[in-house]
Amino acid sequence: MAESMRDIKRRIRSIENTKKITKAMKMVAAANLRRAQDRVEAARPYSEQLRDVIVNLAAGTQGVDHPMLVSREVKKTGYLVITSDRGLAGGYNSNLLRHLMQTLKKRHKSTDEYVIFVIGRKGVDFLKRRNQPIIGQVTGLPEAPAFADVKAVASQAVNDYADEKFDELYLLYNEFVNPVTQRPTEKRLLPLASTELEETQKSNTIYEYEPSVEEVLEEILPRYAETLIFAALLEGKASEFAAKMMAMSNATDNATELIANNRLLYNRARQAAITQEIAEIVGGAAAL
Amino acid sequence: MSKMQLDIVTPEKKVYSNEVDMVLTRAAEGDIGILPKHAPLVSPLKPTVVRIKNDGQELRLAIGGGFLEVRPEQVTILAESAELAGDIDFERALAAKERAEERLEKNSEIDRTRAELALNRAVNRINVTKM
């Protein structure tokens, strides 16, 4: 019995240490989450302004048929998946990747029909293991990614679309609903949905365009697409921290429960040991 | 004297937002100075310098490419990056310039445009601090 008591005590101590770690991680994630949410907010004016300009452009010119606005026959599909670099974030990565695999299986017959861009090491590892066609990847992003960090992969995706390497581009990321809910979402990024661009306030300003409408459009549309990718990344980051916070919060709760259970076991074992000792003494005295 | 609202926005944050007297920069078709009540205008911007005049003082920013949107009461600059002259790390810009020049000399076709862009940005930053 005495040995078992020591084992239980050791176990309790080990769980207590784990609990300290998960608790610290939870607090770090909570702090990061708040900052990530601020960044999502801070990024909004930029993409909204860009969008307003595009809406104005589209309204001012009849029959714009820029390749980024027009759907063409789909022979190949591009996917851009946003995952995290690190785990310990509950179902954050696995939910999204499962969603991706299901979509791929449903939509395509072979791996020739699509290509994938991945952000985040978890996604890269997962998709490499399954021999998926990855054509672009970014890993090791900082907690607070800057636009420059994703610029390369974003413009690669947009340029490949422009070069007709694929005919539509989907964006997959975890939508941030609230700190306890993150939903894997799929959005079609390219061609830019015209419906999304139409429904805005009617501004009656007529702009002059330098050098010309076409050239401005040529410049602005890829930028806008890149900005949307960046916005999705920021939201993905916020979701990641929220998921991490939840996961670590649950882990801490579980640790507390485990400690309580083990403490009960320990006390029971201790009592049993004492009872046995008394029984031995009584037995010894009776034998005399 | 009337003023106009100027906002300089990057994908990460609003860098500058204030009422100003005048904005000077280089648009697609050449240098322009924008005063309040300017005709509506949209133009792309290359990496360039934006000068802001306000109450007799001048403020300079290095813009890493983007867009200029002008309305009579409001000027918006959407830039990929924007740094106030005082915030620029001169040494770093210089190092970036040298690196870009080196890469241009090696002359590998693929990196050429990228190196040229990097050079533009670095030179632009240096110009802003020197002005």
UniProtKB/TrEMBL annotation, chain A:
Naturally occurring in which organism (per UniProt): Polycladospora coralii
Pfam families in UniProt: ATP-synt (PF00231)
Superkingdom in the source lineage: Bacteria
UniProt-listed GO biological process terms: proton motive force-driven plasma membrane ATP synthesis
The protein's name in its UniProt record: ATP synthase gamma chain
Topology relative to the membrane: Peripheral membrane protein
Molecular function (Gene Ontology), one example: proton-transporting ATP synthase activity, rotational mechanism
Keywords: ATP synthesis, Cell membrane, CF(1), Hydrogen ion transport, Ion transport, Membrane, Transport
InterPro entries reported for this sequence: ATP_synth_F1_ATPase_gsu, ATP_synth_F1_gsu, ATP_synth_F1_gsu_CS
Principal location listed in the UniProt entry: membrane
From TrEMBL, chain B:
Principal place of residence: membrane
UniProt keywords, alphabetically: ATP synthesis, Cell membrane, CF(1), Hydrogen ion transport, Ion transport, Membrane, Transport
Bilayer topology term: Peripheral membrane protein
Pfam families reported in the protein's UniProt record: ATP-synt_DE (PF00401), ATP-synt_DE_N (PF02823)
GO CC, any one term: proton-transporting ATP synthase complex
Domain ATP synthase epsilon subunit C-terminal: 87-129
GO function term, MF aspect, one: ATP binding
Database matches in InterPro entries: ATP_F1_dsu/esu_C_sf, ATP_synth_F1_dsu/esu, ATP_synth_F1_dsu/esu_N, ATP_synth_F1_esu_C, ATPsynth_dsu/esu_N
Superkingdom: Bacteria
Domain ATP synthase F1 complex delta/epsilon subunit N-terminal residues, every copy: 4-82
Subcellular location: Cell membrane
Function: Produces ATP from ADP in the presence of a proton gradient across the membrane.
Family in the record: Belongs to the ATPase epsilon chain family.
Subunit composition and interactions: F-type ATPases have 2 components, CF(1) - the catalytic core - and CF(0) - the membrane proton channel. CF(1) has five subunits: alpha(3), beta(3), gamma(1), delta(1), epsilon(1). CF(0) has three main subunits: a, b and c.
The protein, known as: ATP synthase epsilon chain
Organism the protein comes from: Polycladospora coralii
Gene: atpC
